[in-house]
């Protein structure tokens, strides 16, 4: 098995993983970010805005930023906001951001099964990104759950578990190319290569490998290839309901890693609504919810109901107004307490989202981060 970044004590991922609770930021590189509301805010999909957010997060000591990928028709999900119509490519944008930063890890989502992606292309692209960022680049390999996205590429959606079989071969070829022991000859079910080679090779064995998994096939794939597993809540976005089932959920993700000698870093996406007092936070939450973009939510729900993702079964359309796999609402102390509960449930990290990103990230840094440090969940980054 190819050595990965966690096998090198000095890799950026290993350094980040020394934090009791890794902190990431889910970048809003798409119109509306992750919240389907028309309540006023400054959140913006533009590269300049996301670059500044990343620099802000890096200054605060965050460990990584993450870019989403999705393929949508004109108008996005519709509604007044044209939710997600504008969408920066996460690979290009995170590589560009990585060149402008010095410590933070950048992770890009790639739908490897769409169009004519070939592992030789991605192996060279990702190795180049790895060198641009000095080992601070990761690939979130996804197979796509939606029925309509593949049709944009002239394809039909492959059956769920079969997608992971193809992804397994794709990732295995990537790893052989990055290992670079010799030219690669491969004659598989899905891919064929003759005398293929990629150099320069990545700095720490290979780029960081991430997967977004919520099924047994996805967990098995992750155990073979992923350093980081990004998962959702199987019990919906309401924190009080979700937290009770999350320890068992994390245990299911870790189980296939038994015997591999590797320890996955499991992360989840909480949407944070934080104000000085609990009452102010819930009033702000209610103001956002009162201006829900219902048309875009119906569009999102229709798309999701036609997909075969297994990680969102208990999520309801109302969850989309704020967004996130979980929603944490309250005072700085409330937020710190609930992040501590996620750590106790077995999560190694969180990638945070906000409604109005820049000012709310600043408030989180000023008021919540010191509480996490006091609880031993974060160590100050110098």
UniProtKB/TrEMBL annotation:
Xref: CDD domains: Alkanesulfonate_monoxygenase
The name under which this protein is listed is FMNH2-dependent dimethyl sulfone monooxygenase
Do you know which Pfam families this protein is assigned to? Bac_luciferase (PF00296)
Membrane spanning segments where? none
**A GO term, aspect molecular function:** oxidoreductase activity, acting on paired donors, with incorporation or reduction of molecular oxygen
Please give the PANTHER family that the UniProt record associates with this protein. ALKANESULFONATE MONOOXYGENASE, ALKANESULFONATE MONOOXYGENASE-RELATED
- The Luciferase-like domain sits at 23-348
What keyword terms does UniProt attach to this protein?
Flavoprotein, FMN, Monooxygenase, Oxidoreductase
């Amino acid at each position: 098995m190819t050595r990965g970044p966690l096998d090198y004590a000095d890799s950026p991922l290993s350094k980040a993983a020394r934090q009791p609770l890794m902190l990431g930021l889910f970048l809003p590189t798409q119109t509306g970010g992750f919240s389907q509301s028309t309540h006023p805010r400054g959140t913006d999909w533009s590269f300049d805005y996301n670059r500044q957010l990343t620099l802000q997060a890096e200054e605060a000591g965050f460990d990584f930023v993450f870019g989403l990928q999705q393929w949508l028709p004109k108008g996005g999900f519709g509604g007044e906001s044209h939710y997600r119509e504008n969408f920066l490519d996460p690979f290009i944008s995170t590589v560009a951001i990585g060149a402008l930063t010095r410590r933070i890890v950048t992770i890009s989502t790639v739908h490897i099964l769409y169009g004519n992606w070939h592992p030789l292309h991605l192996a060279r692209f990702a190795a180049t990104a790895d060198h641009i960022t000095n080992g601070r680049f990761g690939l979130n390999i996804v197979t796509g759950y939606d029925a309509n996205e593949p049709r944009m590429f002239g394809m039909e959606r492959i059956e769920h578990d079969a997608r992971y079989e193809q992804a397994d071969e794709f990732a295995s070829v990537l790893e052989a190319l990055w290992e670079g022991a010799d030219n690669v000859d491969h004659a598989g079910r899905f891919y064929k290569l003759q005398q293929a080679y990629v150099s320069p090779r990545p700095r720490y064995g290979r780029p960081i490998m991430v997967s977004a998994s919520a099924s047994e096939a996805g967990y098995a794939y992750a155990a073979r290839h992923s350093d980081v597993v990004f998962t959702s809540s199987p019990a919906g976005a309401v924190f009080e309901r979700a937290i009770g089932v999350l320890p068992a959920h994390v245990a299911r993700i870790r189980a296939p890693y038994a015997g591999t000698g590797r320890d996955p870093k499991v992360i989840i996406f909480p949407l944070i609504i934080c104000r000085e007092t609990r009452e102010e936070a819930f009033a702000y939450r209610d103001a956002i919810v009162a201006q829900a973009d219902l048309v875009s939510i119906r569009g999102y729900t229709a798309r999701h109901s036609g997909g075969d993702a297994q990680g969102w079964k208990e999520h309801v359309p109302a969850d989309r107004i704020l967004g996130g796999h979980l929603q944490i609402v309250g005072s700085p102390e409330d937020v710190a307490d609930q992040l501590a509960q996620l750590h106790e449930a077995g999560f190694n990290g969180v990638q945070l989202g906000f409604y109005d990103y820049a000012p709310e990230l600043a408030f989180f840094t000023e008021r919540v981060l010191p509480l996490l440090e006091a609880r031993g969940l974060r160590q100050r980054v110098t």
